[in-house]
Amino acid sequence: MKVLELRRYPVKSMLGVVVDDVELGPGGVDGDRALALVDAETGRVATAKHPRLWRSLLRCSAARDGSAVTITLPDGRTVAAADADGPLSEFLGRPVRLAADRPAGAEVERPDPEDVLAQGVEAEVEAPTLEIAQGTPGGTFVDHSPLHLITTATLEHLGVEALRYRPNVVVATPPGTAPFVENDWLGRELTVGGVRLRVTLPTPRCSVPTLEHGDLPRAPHAVRGPMAENRVEVTGFGVLPCAGAYAEVLDGGTVRTGDAVELR
């Protein structure tokens, strides 16, 4: 196995960028999900998991140059993160602020993807709240654990583009590798180049992969596939449709495209 692709998402629920190398530490990829929009009315973190309110975020993209983050809006305008509150509030039709520090107990609203598929992205479905970053130290806005991986075996079987699942690392697996092989990695260690990881949980799938991503159209099969074929126990959350796996960083360092990936 080897690293096929590395991705960083400077702003939660916006499109990110493919990079040649990343620095990994206890909090995951340096600069990943370092920023997020907070709804000024509710105080909750904005995420496309709640498509009726926030799916338009997936039409925006964010890039990082050093410590500076620039956001590109769908009309092509670019704004520095420090100046983005006004333009983003106008674009989204709701007052928001861009936050750089995750408050303790930060929550998102996460409707059941089956409800969204059945009733549509504009439907007012029940949206339970979920505390994010429960498995991650520091103040980033990741969903749970510091790092998210997915294999080409799983992607090719499902017929889904990697960017829809928003992984940090796409692992190229040998021909003949079974889909959802990530399930077998739980509790085991991976070495990626000189970095050592421990796989912590299967990655539950929400509505996000089904939504428009930039110019990509909707793709209901991106969640219907895991619903039909890979409902597994996610410790602390129940039996859920999953694709990919979360991991924690045991020994950090630099990971590069093409690095070997070994299961221990």
TrEMBL record:
It comes from the Bacteria. Residues 123-264 form the MOSC domain. GO terms for molecular function: catalytic activity; molybdenum ion binding; pyridoxal phosphate binding. InterPro entries: MoCF_Sase_C, MOCOS_middle, Pyrv_Knase-like_insert_dom_sf. It holds the Pfam family MOSC_N. SUPFAM superfamilies: PK beta-barrel domain-like. This is MOSC domain-containing protein. It comes from Pseudonocardia petroleophila. The lineage of its organism: Bacteria, Bacillati, Actinomycetota, Actinomycetes, Pseudonocardiales.
